[in-house]
Amino acid sequence: MPAEGDGDPACPVDAGRHPLHNLWRLRHYLRPHAAEFGWLLLAGLAATGAGIAVPLVAQRVVDGPVARQDPAGLFRLAGLALLLGLVEALLIFIRRWVQSSSSMRIEAAIREDVYAHLQRLPTSFHDRWQSGQLLSRVTSDLSVLRRFLSFGLFFLILNLVTYLAVVTLLIRLHPALGLLVAASAVPLFLISRRFARHYHAASRRMQDQQGDVATLVEETAQGLRTMKAYGRGPELAARFATGARALHDTGVGKGRLLARTSALLDLVPNLTLGVVLVAGAAAAAGGVLTIGELVAFVSLQLMLIWPVQSLGWIIANGQEAATAADRVREVLDTPPAIVDAPHALALRRADVRGRLRFERVSFRYPGTTAPVLREIDLTVEPGETVALVGATGCGKSTLLSLVPRLHEVTGGRITLDGHDLRELRLSALRRLVGVAFEEPTLFSMSVWENLTLGRPEAGEDEVRAALALAQADFAYELPWGLATRVGEQGLSLSGGQRQRLALARAVLGRPALLVLDDPLSALDVHTEALVETALKRVLRTTTALLVVHRPSTIALADRVALLEEGRITAVGRHSELLAAVPAYRAVLSAGPAPAPPGDRGLVRS
Ligand SMILES: Nc1ncnc2c1ncn2[C@@H]1O[C@H](COP(=O)(O)OP(=O)(O)OP(=O)(O)O)[C@@H](O)[C@H]1O
């Protein structure tokens, strides 16, 4: 089970709450547009008022000029009806015009907040959420919300007011028939309630399925080469077809539910209209109702058909918006686990000596029971380079990720110059730490932007020095030099090129701490030797922790720490460990020979 508050997509945060609870919690996005919304509503109500007035004018036409055969009065009242019609059309136009721009702004505001929150959430959150589920939340769910906040909600209010106003007028015109029309609200309410319940569940299912399909498409796009190389196209296509079919079935189910409900919603006012026509004609024949009143009554009642018919669509839209709000709040309600302490210290580069100390550090991934790291004690002195060596899966990358606080220690503490990392301001800490991961990620932006990601203020000289150090001068040879946009995830570059750019990014600005996860793994022997030579110069001026898989890279380190199943079992010079620790020899024996022994105590095995 995932850890509580980790925002696992499988456990909706608000299970058990009222279906509209989360939609209600988004009301503050409407607040900046309250005045606009008020005017819109006013325009809508005025248009409805103008519409309602037309049958009342018709009543006067029939009972007045038509009955008295008075053409002058007829033209006056017809002119009034025409004017009311024009006013109604104008108000509807104004309302629609304004409505679209405010709804787009509301959607953009929510989207910005969700994106900003995603940035603050810990890596453990992103480890556990499928990217397609996040994607569908910031795209389709927000569009659904926009539609509801701008149209669904508006028409819900407008139609309700229209219904109440018309029914009141009907009761005044003929109390018994008016009450009959009012009573038809009971079956309408029951039908709507039942529909809302079923539609809510179907909407949630469909929006989740949309996320699943988006995930599948995204994974396929990212892993296209692997998929093709292994000839797995048909299997993936079959998986996709299953997901798409499930989505289709849910969509069809929803459509049919809406169709059934719309038919029932249509039936109720039409049945009532039939009864009214018969009873109204009888009342007119009996002299209880004038012909004009009957015309007005029926015309007014016809005005209820659209609000009732649209009820199905409005409820459907509302339910979709409610589930969209649930899904968006699942992200927004996940607390950013790694945040600044109240009086966090903003250490500056100039004030840092660079003594990094792990004190009885333990770590367990959220949602798992077994710790990956146990009781780690390790000190890296200022300017020292320590290599982490260990079998695959023993926890090396995890240990590195604790330094820039991508994950938070679950036991013990890590200090920099005696300050617990949790007492440092996150932004300051991350500026002090240069990081290059095993899988170098480049974003769809220019080489320059990729390089200066963590240090946007870096100058040309610094960038040039970093590129030279990482043997990445090839970047100047790209079609537009450093302005060249590298493709999605830098795929248009080779693995070695990407790794060198990622290394240049890490060393840019000479960080106080350098954390490199096997930074030379994708380089050819010649480039590796060149990068090593340059890197040695940088390592002299900074404290560094390196994950090393290849014995040749150990030459960069002053000391080596052997990690076995989450524990550090030996620390020392390479030569000492090689001589005294069989497990160390065993880990290295799989790789190529390390550099010859020198004053750093390195030996060639
Ligand atoms: N996000 C995660 N959630 C849960 N467990 C994880 C996560 N990432 C890694 N692990 C587990 O933690 C353990 C250590 O992983 P880690 O990547 O730190 O190992 P490593 O020593 O760097 O391996 P390698 O040398 O292959 O890169 C592994 O058992 C792995 O399955």
Automatic annotation (TrEMBL):
It is a multi-pass membrane protein. One of its GO terms (molecular function) is ATP binding. CDD domains: ABC_6TM_Rv0194_D1_like (cd18543). SMART domains: AAA. It holds the Pfam family ABC_membrane. The keyword Membrane applies. Residues 39-320 form the ABC transmembrane type-1 domain. Keywords: ATP-binding, Membrane, Nucleotide-binding, Transmembrane, Transmembrane helix. Residues 356-590 form the ABC transporter domain. Its main location: membrane. It is found in: Cell membrane. The chain crosses the membrane at residues 37-58, 73-94, 148-171, 177-196, 264-288. PANTHER family: ATP-BINDING CASSETTE SUB-FAMILY B MEMBER 10, MITOCHONDRIAL (PTHR43394:SF1), ATP-DEPENDENT PERMEASE MDL1, MITOCHONDRIAL (PTHR43394). This is ABC transporter ATP-binding protein. It comes from Micromonospora reichwaldensis.
